[in-house]
Write a structure and sequence with these properties.
With 206 residues, the chain is an all-alpha fold. Helix content is 80%, strand content 0%. The protein has nine helices and no strands. Helix 1 runs parallel beside helix 8, helix 3 packs antiparallel against helix 8 and helix 8 crosses helix 9.
């Protein structure tokens, strides 16, 4: 497969995963309503987990996350954290100046913790991600580095787009728009957090 065609495949597959609704999407939109650069910082935090994981999968360590007990524990703990973040975001709606809550002061930390607590993220990397990494090895170290950079840049572009779009909407529509965004984002976090916990608990009995 030609190198450029491989990179196109990487971008296409990466965007299909990056653009799927989830906790990171909800936080990028919610936090973006007050800071347009929030999405970029969330992507940086996400990359601080993702890039070492890419290297781990490259060396075969990613098989650890295929263990049912590990996936279940990740889902339960991650789900609890996501629900906590959703509650914090919903509480912020009641304040005069809309605030996302203490846990959202650092979008970098949010990006790190949401990545660590999302079993779908881990499963993607030991399945789809691992397959792409094996393909990248055909082009040597340069191929792997190009894959890693291309995938993360997709995260950066999408999260930044969401935050800027949310910020511009908040500027145009005012506080009412911000409260609506916080309500939707908070509800999404509660939904995804509950889903992660439910599937984590179910995984214990498989």
């Amino acid at each position: 497969m030609p190198f450029l065609l491989f990179l196109f495949e990487v971008v296409f597959i990466s965007l299909s995963g990056v653009m799927a609704p989830g906790p990171v999407t909800a936080v990028a939109v919610g936090k973006g309503s007050e800071k347009p650069a929030a999405g970029a910082w969330i992507a940086i935090g996400h990359g601080m987990v993702e890039i070492p994981l890419m290297v781990a999968v490259y060396f075969g360590v990613g098989k650890l996350f295929q263990v049912e007990g590990v996936k279940a524990a990740t889902g339960i703990l991650g789900g609890l954290f996501v629900v906590w973040m959703g509650i914090g975001m919903l509480r912020g709606i009641r304040q005069d100046a809309v605030q996302p809550g203490q846990e959202f002061r650092s979008p970098v930390v949010a990006g790190i913790l949401l990545s660590l607590g999302n079993p779908y993220f881990l499963v993607w990397w030991v399945t789809v991600g691992a397959a792409l990494i094996l393909r990248s090895v055909e082009f040597g170290l340069l191929g792997f580095l190009a894959f890693a950079a291309g995938h993360w840049l997709c995260d950066l572009a999408w999260d930044s787009f969401l935050s800027v779009l949310s910020f511009k909407g908040g500027q145009f529509f005012g506080k009412g728009f911000q409260k609506a965004i916080f309500a939707i984002s908070g509800a999404m976090l509660l939904f995804f957090g509950g889903k992660l916990m439910w599937e984590g608990v179910a995984g214990l009995f498989v």
